[in-house]
Design brief:
2 helices, 5-stranded mixed sheet, single chain, 8-stranded antiparallel β-barrel, Lipocalin, Immunoglobulin-like, about 280 residues, mainly beta
């Protein structure tokens, strides 16, 4: 029993370590068979890994930065055989020649490492956007990269995305309270009322993406986490929806990044919004 338990711990530990290494920017080439729009494309994947080994992110297929498709995806990663299957879902943006139709693709990729070089290799297949016509399939070769060609998005669920479209925020000055340099990709945020609980209500934005909307600060934390990409700056803003009974709107932010813990006190008003910046360096 003891041996089995220790073996399970080793598997879980190694699986988590391997899966965590998948988060990041992957860029390289995607080929396409005859009858395709181009025989070869650049491909950039922004992959975010979750604790259950699920994957999500955006895929950019491009000839150059003016001719591209941006498609979000979900997927699964198996840390035992180092294989992932990624399925594209919705076309978010595209700018392609008039005679080309974006392909909705499925990727079958395997992770490998040789020294410092990390590679994803595999195949893809798919169908044309708007119909079931099969796209000529091809091969994929990607390397891990430190910087993206395209901007890295912050994930929002559909409810928050649709809610933000109709928000009308007041113009307020941003006050940077602290810049936190982190060395891990998973960041946990907890927000408490910093003084007397007086019905302070806030909305939280990360890189202008709404993550919390009109939430009341109490002695119990508002908790969320996000996955940071290397060499990418993140700006977390606390927007005061009201000032409570005792202005201004104040909170205690507790940041957990790996083994490190930070406490930051924030104050927002009708004139300014408190901002904390993050940068993940490897």
């Amino acid at each position: 029993m003891r041996r089995s338990f220790l073996f399970a711990l080793l598997v879980i530990g190694s699986s988590s370590l391997m899966a965590q290494s998948i988060t990041g920017i992957w860029r390289g080439k995607r080929t396409q068979g005859a009858q395709g729009c181009f025989p070869e494309y650049f491909l950039e994947l922004h992959i975010t890994w979750a604790n259950d080994n699920s994957l999500m992110g955006n895929a950019y297929s491009y000839v150059d930065t003016k001719q591209f498709t941006k498609i979000n995806f979900t997927g699964r990663y198996n840390p035992l055989n180092k294989r992932m299957v990624i399925t594209e879902n919705a076309v978010l943006q595209y700018s392609v020649p008039a005679n080309c139709i974006p392909c909705i693709k499925t990727y079958d990729l395997t992770w490998s490492k040789n020294g410092a070089l990390e590679v994803l290799l595999g195949d893809w297949k798919g169908h044309e956007m708007g119909n079931n016509n099969v796209c000529p399939p091809g091969k994929i070769t990607l390397n891990r990269e430190k910087t993206p060609t395209f901007p890295v998005d912050v994930y929002q669920n559909d409810t928050l995305m649709n809610l933000q479209k109709n928000l009308k925020l007041q113009e307020r000055q941003k006050e940077v309270v602290q810049t936190v340099v982190i060395d891990t990709s998973v960041i946990k945020i907890e927000l408490y009322d910093n003084a007397e609980i007086d019905d302070d209500t806030v909305s939280i934005f990360l890189n202008n993406s709404l993550l919390l909307h009109k939430k009341r600060l109490t002695d119990r934390p508002l908790t969320f986490q996000f996955n940071a990409f290397p060499n990418t700056e993140y700006e977390l803003m606390m927007y005061a929806e009201n000032l409570g009974r005792i202005p201004p709107n104040t909170s205690l932010m507790v940041i957990t990044a790996g083994k490190k813990r930070y406490e930051v006190r924030l104050s927002s008003s009708e004139q300014k919004s408190a901002v904390v910046k993050f940068k993940y360096t490897q």
